[in-house]
Amino acid sequence: MKVWGKPIWLKELPPLAGGYAVSVALADYTTIKVGGPAEVMATVGSWEEMGSILRWNEERGTRNEGRVPLTVLGKGSNVMIRDGGVAGVVVVLGKGLDKVEVKGEEIYAEAGAANGTVARAAREAELDGVAFFGGIPGSIGGALRMNAGAYGSETYERLVKLWVMDQAGVVREVEPGFVKPRYRGTELPEGWLYVAGQWQLARADRETIREKMREVNRKRSTTQPLHLPSSGSWFKHAEWKGEKTSAWKLVDAAECRGMRVGGAMVDVQHANFFVNVGNALAKDFEMLSEKVEAQIKERLGVVMEREVRWLGEAE
Ligand SMILES: Cc1cc2nc3c(=O)[nH]c(=O)nc-3n(C[C@H](O)[C@H](O)[C@H](O)COP(=O)(O)OP(=O)(O)OC[C@H]3O[C@@H](n4cnc5c(N)ncnc54)[C@H](O)[C@@H]3O)c2cc1C
């Protein structure tokens, strides 16, 4: 596996309580357990620390030394990290960036908070509207980036306030529409990141919400391969015969269920989950995805779009 040496800019980075580490295997930071190392990993413990890294990079840019690539990683549940790893600084949001607070009938959550924590906090306050977060194994930052959703609900539906950090490290409150939310995607200017969101909820009975969350989890455990490493849904839904069609139906109709390259396989139980069945490399997933995409194009005439975000470089 690729190993990065110490970059010359390492000693210039601003101090962090959580520190920096060189050449950290990112497979351990993803749910699919695949990927090469981060050149430098920064574990950030406050928004001030996060801002100081961005300011340091902004200053490098103005001194014509060139910006260092910066990547924010959430809980790694929607990424595929290529085998050559990720150049520059990979930021992990540590403790201190995960505040969750119920404010009247709204809930505020920071990017580092787990989606499940937010769903449970709302339920305990007898507030409904973010119960769907319960079964999505990512962070609020990842949900804001991806417009995560499930069973008819999406992250931006009830979002009333949004905070982002700009390239110069300044936290700004923006209108949710600023990031142009769409199905499983948003657009944030290059070098910016998500800081927090606030959702408008509705009063509801705690037990009713609990039952709704249980029901969703039951459905997930019977339809999804939760015992195998994956990144959730691989492809986005697509148009087929004039109708919006679930991606698994297209994978199935093109007879791709069970296809395999190395340790990467199209799951047999849920055809839109690509799973790691043993020591898979990112290049296995790349080849498998290309094969599936080609077969769907050839048999159904549909061009598939990947939902999973690809980061880093090939080895
Ligand atoms: C078993 C399983 C089931 C899943 N079910 C669902 C589902 O039902 N619905 C659904 O929508 N998704 C689902 N997913 C996918 C995934 O959980 C969501 O997309 C989740 O929102 C990703 O969050 P994360 O913290 O893991 O993000 P990551 O995977 O770490 O990152 C995703 C992208 O967001 C970027 N990012 C992360 N944090 C920030 C930030 N603070 N600022 C800027 N960019 C950021 C990353 O750079 C990357 O490009 C599932 C995944 C698994 C493994």
What would the keywords be for this entry?
alpha+beta, Uridine Diphospho-n-acetylenolpyruvylglucosamine Reductase, domain 2, Uridine Diphospho-n-acetylenolpyruvylglucosamine Reductase, domain 3, Uridine Diphospho-n-acetylenolpyruvylglucosamine Reductase, domain 1, 5-stranded antiparallel β-sheet, 4-stranded mixed β-sheet, 21 strands, globular, binds flavin-adenine dinucleotide
Describe the structure.
- With 315 residues, the chain is of the alpha+beta class.
- The chain folds into three domains: 8-93, 2-Layer Sandwich (Uridine Diphospho-n-acetylenolpyruvylglucosamine Reductase, domain 2); 100-208, Uridine Diphospho-n-acetylenolpyruvylglucosamine Reductase, domain 3 (2-Layer Sandwich); 226-311, UDP-N-acetylenolpyruvoylglucosamine reductase, C-terminal domain (Uridine Diphospho-n-acetylenolpyruvylglucosamine Reductase, domain 1, Alpha-Beta Complex).
- It contains six helices and 21 strands.
- It has helices at 47-62, 115-124, 140-146, 206-223, 247-253, 282-300, and strands at residues 20-25, 37-44, 70-73, 79-81, 86-93, 100-103, 106-110, 127-128, 149-150, 153-154, 159-165, 171-174, 193-200, 202-203, 230-233, 238-240, 243-245, 260-261, 264-266, 273-276, 309-311.
- It has a five-stranded antiparallel sheet, covered by helices on one side.
- β16 and β17 form a beta hairpin.
- The longest helix has 19 residues, at 282-300.
- Residues 31, 71-79, 111, 136-139, 141-143, 145-146, 148-150, 193-194, 224, 226, 230-232, 309 line the site of flavin-adenine dinucleotide.
